[in-house]
Specification:
This protein is an alpha/beta fold. Helices cover about 25% and strands about 15% of the residues. It is extended.
Length: about 325
């Protein structure tokens, strides 16, 4: 007799929880860090931005020095996230850069500096025959990021940080990098890697991290994280949702978080009392908009009952088409 395959229909072992190993290390470096960076990958999804902003607002409430940035400009769809205006497009603030227009590059003879009682003087000497540089055309900027702790959100590799990684490689060599993601193809480039593929969104990972670290979770942080989960799970309809997603959502709602109503991050209606649909219904292969029917413009008469042949009807008469009229007339 052939051996029949055995199916285990009981509870499955979820495997080791990466938060168990990562949380103590993150807590240790967080306590000793003065300057913190939160970096969002290039071309991020709403889930990535929401997770980063949720962590940013939570850390800011502890009076830490925190900067949040993305190499990609924020899109209109992110405008409903609290604090999106705080997302910078540059992370360097260590080195002051003094810039002149491109056309002056061939007119500069020498650059030097000196110190006197008035302070530090930068001297730019033009070549003979060229006019003095126009001070009104001078621009100032900063480069050279400095931080002891860097959270990277949603990047599968450091190159996903675009110009941040290209321009600030020294930062990633010296700082403690915490890599947060929910994708199995992540290259685990961080000193600390918090990659949990059992979770359906980066916002869910950040929610659990905030809880484990004992960080404050106010209404704004919770609302951002709920928006991220809502987008990543297709309004909580994805077929592979686990109980952890609903548990995380419950924590956020208890903290005052509000689920987005109207159009969700995936461009489909979200659930709510006005929709008359429960988010806990059977999963769907694709979100479907509600169907509304309109009443007829005019009252319709009920259709007449079918007629049957009488004994006096001949076969020829029975085969002729019949015309039925309604009981009401439309003027």
């Amino acid at each position: 007799m052939l051996n029949q395959p055995k199916f285990n229909l009981g509870p499955q072992d979820p495997g080791p929880n990466p938060l168990d190993a990562a949380t103590p290390d993150i807590k240790k470096v967080l306590e000793s860090s003065k300057d913190i960076l939160i970096l969002i990958r290039d071309n991020p999804r709403l889930d990535h931005v929401a997770a980063a902003l949720g962590l940013y607002l939570s850390l800011k409430s502890t009076n830490k020095s925190v900067i949040i940035a993305s190499p990609t400009p924020m899109r209109v769809e992110f405008n409903r996230l609290v604090g999106v205006d705080k997302v910078a497009d540059k992370i360097g603030n260590r080195n002051l850069v003094i810039s002149f227009p491109q056309e002056t590059k061939d007119s500069i003879e020498k650059v030097s500096y000196n110190m006197d009682d008035g302070g530090f003087n930068l001297v730019i000497q033009p070549k003979a025959g060229f006019p003095s540089l126009d001070s009104s055309k001078v621009t100032y900027s900063y480069t050279g990021a400095e931080a002891q702790l860097v959270f990277v959100i949603g990047a599968q590799k450091l190159e996903d940080l675009g110009m941040f990684y290209q321009d600030e490689r020294r930062l990633f060599e010296q700082a403690s990098v915490v890599n947060i993601d929910a994708v199995a193809t992540n290259t685990r480039f961080g000193a600390i890697n918090l990659i949990w593929t059992d979770f359906t969104s980066t916002s869910e990972v950040v929610t659990e991290l905030i809880d484990r670290l004992g960080l404050p979770l106010d209404q704004d942080s919770a609302t951002n994280l709920l928006a991220g989960m809502n987008e990543a799970t297709q309004n909580f309809q994805r077929f592979n949702l686990k109980a952890t997603a609903f548990e995380a959502a419950a924590k956020l709602m208890k903290a005052g978080g509000k689920r987005p109503m109207g159009m969700g991050g995936m461009g489909v209606p979200t659930f709510g009392p006005s929709m008359g649909v429960s988010p806990f219904s059977a999963p769907l292969s694709a979100p479907r908009p509600p169907v509304f029917s309109e009443p007829p413009l005019y009252p319709q008469a009920p259709p007449p009952p079918p007629q049957s042949p009488t004994p006096t009807d001949s076969a020829e008469e029975w085969l002729k088409p019949k015309i039925f009229t309604g009981s009401s007339k439309i003027s």
